[in-house]
Specification:
Helices cover 49% and strands 0% of the residues. The chain contains three helices and no strands. The two termini are 50 Å apart.
Length: 108
C-alpha cells in the first residue's frame, strides 16, 4: 500500500510541474478556455435551466384515493395460507446408467 501512495504523489507532483511549466511558457490565456468550459458545464449540471427541470409537482394522494387503492389490492393473510411444508430429500434409485460389471466406472 505504501508503494502505491508514493507512486500517486510522484504523479501528482509531475502533473503540478507540467501545469506550472505550460502556464509559464504558454501563458494563462491557454488555460482560460478549458477552465471556463468546465465551470459552465458544472454550473449547468448543478443548476439546470427551468426548461429542463421536472414540471410535475409532488402531490400527496388524498384519503379517498388511498382507500380505493387499498380496496383493489389484495391483502396478504399469513394465517389463511399455510406455510410450505419442508420435506426431507429422498433418493429414488433408477435403472439408467447402471453397469452390469458392478463397481467398474463407465469411463476410464
Amino acid at each position: 500500500m505504501r508503494k502505491q501512495a508514493v507512486i500517486f504523489w510522484v504523479l501528482i507532483g509531475l502533473a503540478a510541474i507540467g501545469i506550472a511549466n505550460s502556464m509559464l511558457t504558454g501563458g494563462i490565456l491557454n488555460w482560460l478556455i478549458p477552465v471556463v468550459l468546465v465551470a459552465a458545464v458544472f454550473l449547468l449540471y448543478k443548476f439546470p435551466p427551468a426548461k429542463y427541470r421536472s414540471k410535475s409537482p409532488k402531490v400527496k394522494p388524498s384519503a379517498k384515493t388511498m382507500a380505493k387503492i387499498a380496496k383493489t389490492t389484495p391483502q396478504r393473510r399469513s394465517d389463511a395460507a399455510p406455510k410450505r411444508k419442508h420435506y426431507p430429500f429422498q433418493v429414488i434409485e433408477g435403472n439408467k446408467g447402471k453397469n452390469e460389471d458392478g463397481q467398474q466406472p463407465k469411463y476410464h
